[in-house]
Design a protein that fits this description.
With 119 residues, the protein is mainly alpha-helical. Helix content is 67%, strand content 0%. Helix 2 packs across helix 3.
């Protein structure tokens, strides 16, 4: 046992009293909340501490995407994703330009009514 600096993936200490299926369900419950609930809130529901749940989520993320795998995407997949994101970025920029005149009209209307309210 390396006590100076435990290596990644080496279990130190006792085994978890929680079965793997329970841990997986707790992680799935946290992810299903979509960021609307904290680790502590979800952990309280399942009866563990927030830090325990956080470590389970971190472990699940590490197991899902091993180091050096770039999220498991191939070069072609990354290129397709990049092309999709660039197209979406262009679409959003065009939409923003379309909204500029409307935003200016609303700004001027707000100024007009603010003057009317003061008068």
């Amino acid at each position: 046992m390396d006590l100076v600096g435990p290596r990644k993936g080496v279990l130190v200490g006792r085994r978890s009293p929680y079965p793997a299926e329970f841990r997986d369900d707790a992680v799935a419950l946290y992810r299903a909340a979509g960021g609307k609930r904290t680790y502590a809130a979800v952990a309280a529901d399942v009866g563990v501490t927030g830090e325990t749940l956080r470590s389970w989520v971190r472990q699940a993320d590490e197991q899902a995407a091993p180091a050096g795998s770039c999220g498991g995407m191939t070069a072609e997949g990354r290129d397709e994703e990049l092309a999709r994101l660039r197209a979406e970025n262009g679409r959003l920029r065009r939409a923003e330009k379309e909204w500029e005149p409307e935003r200016e009209i609303l700004r001027r209307a707000a100024q007009y009514f603010a003057k009317e309210m003061r008068a």
